[in-house]
Amino acid sequence: MSNTQAIPVEITRAGERDVKIRWQDGHESVYPARELRLKCPCAGCLDEVTGALRLIASSVPQDVHPLKIEQVGRYAVTIRWSDGHHTGIYAFDYLRKVCPCCSDKRQATSDK
Amino acid sequence: MATQYIIPIASGKGGVGKSTVSANLALALAKTGAAVGLMDADVYGPSIPTMLGITKPPEVDASNRIKPVEQHGLKVVSMGFFMKPGEAAIWRGPMLHKTVQQFLTGVAWGDLDYLIIDTPPGTGDVTLSLCQSIPLTGVVIVSTPQDIALNVAQRAIAMFKKLNAPILGIIENMSHYVCPRCGQREEIFGVGGARKTAERMAIPFLGEIPLSTPIRVASDEGKPIVLSQPESPGAKAFTAVASHLAAQAGLRAQQGAQVKVTF
């Protein structure tokens, strides 16, 4: 089994509201706050069985932002949001997978 | 609580000897002069109090924290302290999570070099809570050499990989039986399976513990073999495993840089 798990070095702010992660391999990801809220992987936002999105985007305020980010063990963080939501556990692997710049690139390659 | 190494002892299958291994490893580490805590997180079948011969319940200090019971030089907390004999813990997940939290943060552990945690078998609530609550140094997997036990052990290893909890190594328990009368070696569950699994998965192999009557008797009598018969083959096997474990823990602690969260 390879040990290619994505591990952050630092999780901090980008500007007023957004979240920045610096990864062990040197990559930096910047997550716009509301986009990250809409990607919440908790069972209330994402159907556990089908993976279908249950969260209704229009119910999330435009200015939603994290109030506090806390580590969960060695593999994830949990985010306390300004809209009161707090049940999502964002695994590092998941965060790396949804990195905005990396997923843009993947999109671009698959478009070709 | 300042603890240098936090090490759960886990398995896939039940009945492979996690508690016996936990108690003897904790004692072997304490013998080297380390300050060792032993947390019995097996809520369904807490057996550490019996194995260590603990009969008195823990006290509560002035700030309402549980004071671990000190026995044979270990600091011990067990679910068994809070249940009457013959009673069962029939709990759903949230209660289990709360108990794990209480044992981690509501216990006056003091400064420890090692916190060894005896867990229930499998990939359930208690083990998941542990992985979510604290940055573990790494997990030790106990298995018998049988294929059936090793198959389930691999599932447990997969869980820990997913949760980014390092595997410090695999211990093969009940590795072989030596007849006390004729000295013949009997490989009841086969032998070497755990070592091969460890090699295949590129995980350290920490050693083999024989299946032996004196180990079982010593545990039942409340004075594990590392204490009662330190020169026996069983005790020597535990001591050797403990020193490999200490080396792996030291290595992992150096590698495991903490994530800096400033938000």
**Which percent band covers the strand fraction of chain B?**
15-25%
Q: Specify the overall morphology of chain B.
A: globular
Quaternary structure annotation: heterodimer
Number of folding domains of chain B? 1
Strand order of the largest sheet of chain B: 5-6-2-7-1-8-9-12
Corresponding CATH architecture of chain B: 3-Layer(aba) Sandwich
Task: Walk me through the structure.
The complex is a heterodimer of chains A (112) and B (263). Chain A has 112 residues and is α+β, with helices and mostly antiparallel strands. Chain A is built from 3 helices and 6 strands, in the order E-E-E-H-E-E-E-H-H. By secondary structure, chain B is α/β, with parallel strands linked by helices. Chain B is built from 9 helices and 13 strands. Chain A binds chain B through residues 1, 5, 7-13, 19, 66, 68-77, 89, 92, and chain B through 131-136, 161-165, 201-202, 256-257, 259-263.
Summary keywords:
heterodimer, A: 112 residues, alpha+beta, NE0471 N-terminal domain-like, three-stranded antiparallel sheet, 21% helix, B: 263 residues, alpha/beta, Rossmann fold, two-stranded antiparallel ribbon, globular
Helix/strand layout:
The complex is a heterodimer of chains A (about 110) and B (about 260).
Chain A: E1 8-14, E2 18-23, E3 28-31, H1 33-38, E4 66-72, E5 76-81, E6 89-91, H2 92-97, H3 100-111
Antiparallel strand pairs in A: 1-2, 2-3, 4-5, 5-6
Chain B: E1 3-10, H1 18-31, E2 36-40, H2 48-52, E3 59-60, E4 66-67, E5 69-71, E6 74-78, H3 93-105, E7 112-118, H4 125-133, E8 139-143, H5 147-162, E9 167-172, E10 177-178, E11 185-186, H6 193-200, E12 205-208, H7 213-220, H8 225-228, H9 233-255, E13 260-261
Parallel strand pairs in B: 1-7, 1-8, 2-6, 2-7, 8-9, 9-12
Antiparallel strand pairs in B: 3-4, 5-6, 10-11
Question: Quick recap of the structure?
Answer:
The complex is a heterodimer of chains A (112) and B (263). Chain A has helices spanning 33-38, 92-97, 100-111; strands at 8-14, 18-23, 28-31, 66-72, 76-81, 89-91.
